[in-house]
Structures are given as C-alpha cells and as structure tokens.
Amino acid sequence: MLTIQNLHANIGDKEILKGINLTIKAGEVHAIMGPNGSGKTTLSSVIAGREDYEVTEGSIDLDDKDLLELAPEERAHEGVFMSFQYPVAIPGVTVTNFIKTAINAKRKAAGLEDMPAADLLKMIREKAQLLNMDRSFLSRSLNDGFSGGEKKRNEIFQLAMLEPKLAILDETDSGLDIDALKTVANGVNKLKSKDNAVIVITHYQRLLEYIVPDFVHVLSDGKIVKTGGKELALELEEKGYEWVK
Amino acid sequence: MKDKLIASFMAFENKGSIQTDTEFHKVRSAAMQQFENVGFPTKKVEDWKYTSLKKLLKNDYSLFPQLPKHEIQLAEVDTYFLKGIDSYKIVFVDGVYDSFLSETTHDGMDICLLSSAINKPKYKIMREHFFNKAASKSDGLTALNTAFASEGAYIHIPKNTVLQKPIQIVYFTTDNEKDVLLQPRNLIIVDENSQVQIVERHQSLSNKNVLNNTVTEIFANKRAHIDYYKIQNDQQNASLIDSTFVEQKEQSVVSVSTFSFGGDMTRNTLSFYQKGERINSILNGITMLDNDQHVDNQTNVYHQQPNCESHELYKGIFDGKSTGVFNGKVLVDQIAQKTDAYQQNDNILLTDDATINSKPQLEIFADDVACSHGCTIGQLDQDALFYMRQRGIPEKEAKALLLYAFTNEVVDKIRIPVLKTLITKIISQKLGVELGINI
C-alpha cells in the first residue's frame, strides 16, 4: 500500500531524514520508535505533506499514486490521515461542523454529492459512541479548551469518520492517562481492517500493548536502524535506545 | 472645500428645514466658527497621522440634501435591511427622510426624526440638555456636522421600557449626477432601566462619490442598556467619517460594535464618557478589507468615576493593499479607582502590501486599577492551515474557515440573531466561500 524509497528530507539546510525505506501492506500495523530528534515526526509530516520540509531525494507512493506530487488535502483525499501530536484549536468551528466540512470536501474531490445530513448525524453518533465521547463534546469548538485526552480522542474520532486507507498516529499516547489510552487504542483496533494500514509513531512501548504492531522499526538519526516484530518494542523498553545506535 | 462650506453656511441656515430659533442658531454659529478656526484635520494632527482626507476633499461635493430624483422602491433596497424580524426603521435617502421606507413611532416613546425634534416646542428639553452636549466642541469635523446638521434619527426611550424590536437607522444615497457630502446627525436618549438595540447603516446606491460626515450622540441613563451596531459595507466610491459620543450614567451598559467591511475610506471615532459608578462600556470591532480600502478606528474610553469597566476587542483582516489603523485610548482619572479596563486588538495581514498601524494608549492616573491591553499582528497560522488541509479541506476553504474563526469571538457577541447571520454572511462573501457551517 505504502512504499517509501530512499527518502531524504531537509528542514532549512539541515538534513533530518537520511534515506528511509519502508513498505507497508494493507492490513498491517507498523510501529516507528526512536529517541527524540531521530526524525519520527518529520517522517509523518513528510508523508502528510507538510510544506516546511523539503524532500531532496526518494519517493513515497500510496498504491499507484506519487504522494510527493500532491498537496496535503489531495493526500487526505487519497486516504492519508495523520493524528497530530498537537492538534490545533479552531474557536468558532464546532467538532461537528469541522468533520462535516472535511467529509464533504473529500466527497467533492471524489465527485460525490454532500453526505445527507441524516446519514452524517447517524455516523457521528456511532463513532462518538465507539470512543465514549459525550454528545455535548460534538457542539464544542474544535480543540478549543480541550484537555490533552479530549484532543487525542477527537483526533481518533475524526479518523473514524474519515475512514482513511493509511492512518498515522503521531505520539497519540502522549498526555493520555491509562483509561484514555485504552479507549483510544480500542477505537483504533475496531477501525482496523484488511484494507487499511496503521503507522504508530511513539517514544514508548506503552501504547503498543494496546495497539499491537506487526512490525517495529527503530529510527535513529534519520534512518531505520532496526526492524523486528512486536517483541522488539519490549526489548527497546528494557535496554534503551542506546542499544540500537 | 473648506471655503465652499463656510460660504454655504449662511445660505444653508436660511433655506434649511430647521427654524433658526436663537438658541439653536447660536450652537450652529459657534460650531461653524470652530470649523473655520480648525478646518479639516491634516496628517500633522497626531490622531490623523495615518489617514488623509486630501483626496476626498478634492471632490466637488454638493452640500445640500435634495429630494431624490426617483422614488426608491423597497425591492431595490430590501437587501440592506435586517430580514425576518419586526423592527422600527428610520430611513433617509440623500439626506431626506423617506416615510415610505420608514416605520417610526411616537407611541410611548419617540423613534423619529431629528428635524421634527429640533423644531417642536415639546422637545425643548432635548435641545437644552442633550443636543451637542456629548459631542466634541473642538473637533473640526464634528463642528462641521453640528453646523450643517439638519436631519438624522432622534430616539428617546422613556424609563422602564424594554424595546422588543430593534431599531434600524439607514442612510441611502442615490444621486447619480453629482458627488454628495452629507452630515447625518443622530441623537439617542435612553432613560432609566430601559433597553434598546440599534443598527445603523450607510449605503450608497449611486455611481458618484459620497462622503458621509456623521455624528451620533448616545445618552444612557441609570441602568440603561444599549447595544449599538454599525454596519459599514459600502461601495468603493463611498466614504464615511463617523464620530460617536457615548455618555453613561451609573450602572448603565452600552456596547458599540463596528463592522467595517467596505467603502473607500472609513474613519470611526468612538468616545465613551463614564459619568457614574459601576458602568460597563463595551467596544467591539471587526475590520475586513481588500484592495485599496482604508479603515481608521480611533477609540477613547474616559474612565471618570470609580468601579467601572470597559471591554474592548477589535479584530482586523487586511488583504490586497488595504490599510488599517487602530488607535485605542483608555484614560483613567485619578478618582476612577477600581477601574477594570481591558483592551485587545488582533490583526492578520494576508499580503505583504497590506498595512496595519496599531497603537494602544493607556493613561492611568489612579493607583488601584486593573488595566490590560494587548495587540497582535500576524499572518495566518500555518500549523492550523496544515491541520485542516490534512483533513482534506482545500487551502482556500481552510484559510476562509480560519479567518472566520478569527472573527468569531466578536461575531459571537452580537445579540440580534438575524444580524449575526447577516454579518456571518458578509464575512463568508468577503472570504469568497460558502462556509458550509450552521451558524
């Protein structure tokens, strides 16, 4: 589904990614772990199309599409979703209105009419329930005054609504207590299918107890230095990142 | 232009619709004298540093209001009124009252014309105690208005009256033959415990240059509550100089919201005078400009008594080569202890050619006060933009949604639902998108 080849990326003059190769198939969960500054967030940002980064070499393909040719919104329309480490607040735009705007933008790009309001509301109710979200939450301004946990839950709610092919969870566990973590992980697990794939970017092994990866990759200084199964995460937790350097 | 005005004054007094009873004549003559002395402000005056009237004053304006050439039909102007709501209306066309479009009353209150109030003996109290009592005597433009003022809205709400319908004051200009300078004058008096909502709008329908030099005086008696909204969304050949003076008695609450979306040059001078304790003065503004438009907001809040509050929030979005000015003064007298004054001015510049000059000024002579002010000038939040695009929202819509969100804090304070809808609609039109959101 996703093929990354020899990916190099800079921010300003500084090279952050130094030749990443990664292949992800439909139905798989991949974890990317690594110490601070290893390039984890850069990798997810480059896949999602953040313009602060300059790709100097390599390619990213989603099925047969060259993602690097596409604007961030076009990548989203192709099925890329990134859950943000720091979701932004948009006062004055409710959670419901935001997701409605996003869904209809995606449908418009696919040549479809707006989703009928009744269908949309039904879907919103189902997905909110999946994530134990209170109904009042939906009429609040997006991320405005949300707690850390609420923000992350809202990200996964949007993930559930948009049903992407490829979901990238960037440090979704940060700032979550154990109950919130379980709810979020449970939501992600229910959304997993043989047709989609998940990349979990995390510093700690904790989240991987709940979202169990098929592969664990260790990123260090802009390169994947080790790849293994889920047991690699435990080993890292035990021995620390120094071990793989 | 100044000479023409001076030369026209006597002719104006003689032919005017207003009887020149001596008392009123004195007020006008004094005002004319003041205008002769100070004239139009130039950029040398500190408060006019960023706004020039030079270009506007080159136009050869006609000075006397004239009956419009053709009768204006409701269908032509329907779009400029609030819809789906019962309201009083005081409507002027080319400076002349239009009774067909208006809906006034004398039933228990006066919602009518300044000219009739000036002429009739029963309004003597208004002339003696209110007219020109709050307005600046030194400012040249206000003096000019006082000298030439012949028409405008007169609103007097007696005590213990809560008005169920808002009042719309609308000034149209239709003259397609010559440039027009008009001097609208509004006087609003709200007595004890009474409440009223007022919406004022100036709208040109002509293809000639229009300059409105308008003065509004607002008197809020004890515990009165007034919400005053100004919609400034005029054609590119229309300019507006608005001077509004608000005098408040104890425990009154007055909000003035200024929505500046269009016109060529707009200058708003808004002054609050707190003449009692536990007063709340609220100043809200949204400015959204493009092309060569210019808006200058000058606000003055005079804290002259203890235990009062003021809350000021102005937001500006500047596109194209537009320019904006925000000059917000808060003056706290020595006696005005326990003042709580808040001022915030936030601006977004969308192009390298757009300009905002923002100058918060606090002069505090009391020692036990809570005053805060802030000013931000920035560009669109790139993180927020990326976030929205990541969710599939195209760049243009994402920008629009962000700008809408930026203005929302002010829009949200509008207490007339149909007006809130109208302002949101104007904003989405300015942004060039259907916001696709339920307001």
Report what the structure shows.
- The complex is a heterodimer of chains A (245) and B (439).
- Chain A has helices at 40-48, 72-78, 95-109, 117-130, 148-162, 178-191, 231-239; strands at 2-11, 14-24, 29-33, 54-62, 65-66, 80-83, 90-94, 141-142, 166-170, 197-202, 215-220, 223-228.
- Chain A has one domain (2-244): P-loop containing nucleotide triphosphate hydrolases (Rossmann fold, 3-Layer(aba) Sandwich).
- The longest helix of chain A is centred in the middle third of the chain and has 15 residues, at 95-109.
- In chain A, a hairpin with a 2-residue loop joins strand 4 (54-62) and strand 5.
- Chain A contains 7 helices and 12 strands.
- In chain A, 34% of the residues lie in helices and 29% in strands.
- In chain A, the strands form 3 sheets. Chain A has a 6-stranded mixed beta sheet, with helices on both faces.
- With 439 residues, chain B is α/β, with parallel strands linked by helices.
- Chain B has 2 domains: 2-275, no CATH class; 381-439, no CATH class.
- Helices cover 22% and strands 36% of the residues of chain B.
- Chain B has helices spanning 2-15, 22-38, 74-77, 114-119, 124-129, 140-148, 382-390, 395-411, 417-431; strands at residues 88-93, 96-97, 110-113, 153-157, 167-173, 180-182, 185-190, 195-204, 210-220, 225-232, 238-248, 253-260, 265-274, 280-289, 294-303, 309-318, 323-332, 340-349, 355-364, 370-378.
- In chain B, helix 2 (22-38) runs antiparallel to helix 6 (140-148), helix 7 (382-390) crosses helix 8 (395-411) and helix 8 packs antiparallel against helix 9 (417-431).
- The radius of gyration of chain B is 21 Å and the shape is globular.
- At the A-B interface, helix 2, strand 6, strand 7 and helix 3 of A face helix 7 and helix 8 of B.
